[in-house]
Amino acid sequence: MTDINATREPGRLGRVWNSNFVYSFRKNPVAVVSMAIFLLIAAAALLAPWLAPVDPYDPSLFDIMDSELPPVWSDSGDSRFLFGTDDQGRDLWSAILYGTRLSLIIGLCAVALQALLGISIGLIAGYVGGRTDSLLMRLADIQLSFSTLMVAIIFLAVTQAMFGSETFNQYAVFMLIAVIGVAEWPQYARTVRATVLAEKKKEYVDSARVLGFGPLRIMVRHILPNSLSPIFVISTVQVANAIISEASLSFLGLGMPPSQPSLGSLISSGFDYIFSGSWWITAIPGVVLVVLVLVINLLGDWMRDVLNPKLYKG
Predict the structure, then answer these.
(1) By C-alpha distance, which of 149, 118, 147, 311 is closest to 224?
(2) What are the C-alpha distances in Å from 148 to residues 183, 250, 293, 304?
(3) What is the pTM of this model?
(4) What value does the mean pLDDT of the chain take?
(5) Average pLDDT of the residues in 289-302
(6) Topology of the domain comprising 47-307
(7) Are 106 and 176 in contact (CB under 8 A)?
(8) Domain ranges of the chain
(9) What pLDDT is recorded for position 140?
(10) With the C-alpha atoms ordered 55, 242, 180, 306, is the resulting torsion angle positive or negative?
(11) How far is Cα 112 from Cα 43, in angstroms, rounded to an integer?
(12) Taking 60 as the threshold, does the pLDDT of residue 131 lie above it?
């Protein structure tokens, strides 16, 4: 008698678990460890309101007499403050949790804006071609000739001078998302355009035209899905780049203000106290930033290898 369970097809979860993508992930210890660390950091940042002992946004909870206390493992550490305190007497553990959440939000939103602009421009340039393609790609070339930090520094400095520090600090999150997102869209546009140029000559696109589908539907429903692999790889790397850009701008005083801690603003606020012995104010947020960016880049490298059949060895 034939065993029914032996001939039963695996469910959707089973097919995903046994897919080449998940199998390669399970067999790659670097990817597994990187994902575990990233999920741990992301979960801690997401649960910051519940994990943080105090709200670092509320100055009434700080005591200036507690300023520059070392971490709890130091001889003069205070058991109330796991990672010590900063120059304002703010609990550094709480500030890091909220700051990591803010840095991740800025990074993810900036990359979403980059992807929206870049994918749209890349689809139009590759599908329409001709003068439209030339014009859009020349704009991308001009954009790529300027570094992201240079564009961001000029824009944010001018904006801060025009509207004043108080107004700028109030909308600093949106400013950073906008400037980082707009500065990096050519990475997506050039990649998507190259894919569109290859895909639009294939038979399934000709069939869609014969069936009377419009250009927008063909680009979004038929060509775009075949461009997702390089988009995922770019997005992973760009999240890390966006977090670094935010930290750099905050360190230069053009990002998040000290009252709204991000990893960059925490590193910046403690930089003046390194030589006085209060190394933890800058060092601990700096370590968190390095680890976060490192694991995201390692995941991006693994994803690039898996999604590129010429590089993947199985």
Answers:
(1) 118
(2) 6, 14, 17, 23
(3) 0.84
(4) 82
(5) 90
(6) MetI-like fold (1.10.3720)
(7) yes
(8) 47-307
(9) 87
(10) negative
(11) 20
(12) yes
